[in-house]
TrEMBL record:
This is Tyr recombinase domain-containing protein. The keyword Cell wall biogenesis/degradation does not apply. PROSITE patterns: TYR_RECOMBINASE. It comes from Silvibacterium dinghuense. GO terms for molecular function: DNA binding. Residues 1-135 form the Tyr recombinase domain. Keywords: DNA recombination. One of its GO terms (biological process) is DNA integration. InterPro entries: DNA_brk_join_enz (IPR011010), Integrase-like_cat_sf (IPR013762), Integrase_catalytic (IPR002104).
Amino acid sequence: MRPFGKTKGSLTVIPIAEDLADELAAWRRISQEQYDKKKRKRGLPPSDPQAFLFPIPRGSFIDTGNYRNRVLRKLAERLGFPKLTFQVIRRTIATLAKDKGHIKDIQEMMRHSRVATTTDVYMQSLHEGVRSTVNSIYNELMDTGTLGKDGAGRRMDDAARESRAANPPRVRGVVLEFATKSRKGGAAKCLK
């Protein structure tokens, strides 16, 4: 549409899911056939294969402000959201992507020139994610640190691993004991 964008990265190819690409190709084929049938009846030439995918009746592109007011605002009201904009949708996608790929992949998907923009501005922290991270770190610290080995460092067979998963070792007493001794000034003794 134009030879410039907000940044150099704005003018790159935008990756989309393969299934979505197939659906859009089918949509284009069907809508062009219907559109061309109407044009033939009026004696007009067929549509341009480079035409917009979702054109307005004049064949031009949809104005983003119009779409935001006509579609996104109504959808936000229906869903009970305070607002729904393209920016909100981009932040949602970046936040959901953080558990699905490498940060550099997400940066490229978002077409950001700097990783900091992706992580500091677009990705949001979710309570469930924070809780999961805390629990994961706690479980790793309370375990032997070596998957597949028992407390004595011996390799476990499948039955032992399943038994341990069903009945994890109780460590609460160890943590509380360490904290109590630490409070009394004996933390160094606990570490020996």
